[in-house]
Design brief:
9 helices, 6 strands, six-stranded mixed sheet, binds iron/sulfur cluster, alpha/beta, 9% strand
Length: 301
């Protein structure tokens, strides 16, 4: 009796895991297609930190490459920042096992940051600046045409709220952008993927996670706070995160207040009926879900 129950349970788990993998592949494929992230002949430098997100990004990109209608190369890159206790054998062993070309860049940014930043202050902003510069240089040296980062849907939404609440700007984290040195295209293939799915995927795949707190610095407190708000809203109103995230893809400049984006001064009545025009005094209906359904990779959930 127990064997039958165990078998059914194992089947259910395998089914759910398979569904999760397909969902990740579909969402990453969709993001790549929607933003034309990867093109024929690209060499994609996949930045691996040793955290769950970047492992998942590499794993899914390798799967998608097998069935993509285009050819592109992947090179995995890790920056060993010489933090105390960094297990430097983990990534080379993992990547060798996968047979993926990789490069480990050793740069002791840890000593620089701890020397320059006074004790008790957060190290992250200088650390990220240094890391960014090094990764751009490595991308040039490796001849990479795209730099892939493992930020996901919840990072993007969190950044949007951080910028709004503390920076006074409607500004998120773009899925594709030109690097600040102007020389590279940075992409975020996990842009549509929710963090909970990445947590589960890391468990399913048993990625050899390297803890992210080796440097002893804490995640930005404001970011933690925003994360808590978002999770609380989601608990209270399930689906709210998805709705807010979708809002980032449906911006209506004529209904905001940035005169640089919309010519309010020059606005004139046209005398013509506009089916998409404003319904100033009516209540807005809820918008339908987004997604242009272009399939870059042939993946069904
Ligand atoms: S948590 Fe540590 S390694 Fe990560 S950005 Fe901050 S200082 Fe750098």
């Amino acid at each position: 009796m127990n064997t039958v129950v165990d078998h059914k349970r194992a089947e259910k788990i395998a089914f759910e895991n398979n569904k999760l993998e397909k969902r990740l592949c579909r969402q990453v494929g969709q993001a790549i297609a929607d933003f034309n992230m990867i093109e024929d002949g690209d060499k994609v430098m996949v930045c691996l930190s040793g955290g769950k997100d970047s492992y998942a990004m590499l794993d899914v990109l390798l799967k998608l490459r097998e069935r993509a209608p285009i050819e592109f190369d992947i090179v995995a890159v890790n920056l060993d920042q010489k933090q105390p206790g960094f297990p430097e054998h983990v990534l080379p062993e993992y990547l060798t096992g996968l047979g993926v070309p990789f490069h480990i860049e050793e740069q002791d940014t840890y000593s620089i940051v701890t020397r320059v930043i006074p004790e008790g202050k957060t190290l992250c902003s200088l650390c990220s600046r240094l890391r960014r510069g090094i990764l751009y240089r490595v991308a040039t040296e490796l001849g990479a045409t795209k730099i892939a980062l493992g930020h996901h849907r919840d990072d993007i939404l969190g950044t949007f709220f951080l910028n709004m609440f503390y920076g006074g700007k409607l500004k998120g984290m773009p899925p594709k952008l030109v690097s600040d040195d102007g020389k590279h295209i940075v992409i975020r293939p996990l842009a549509y993927v929710k963090e909970d799915d990445l947590v589960r995927y890391a468990e399913v795949k048993q990625f050899p996670i390297i803890p992210c707190n080796l440097c002893g610095s804490q995640e930005n407190l404001k970011r933690q706070e925003v994360k808590r708000w978002l999770n609380d809203w989601e608990k209270k109103y399930p689906g709210r995160i998805e709705t807010m995230f979708n809002a980032l893809t449906r911006v209506v400049p004529s209904h905001l207040m940035d005169a640089g984006l919309f010519d309010f001064k020059g606005l004139q009545a046209t005398g013509e009926v506009d089916a998409d025009g404003d319904i100033a005094f009516d209540e807005e209906p809820c918008a339908p879900p987004v997604g242009n359904q272009i399939r870059f990779f042939d993946m069904e959930e």
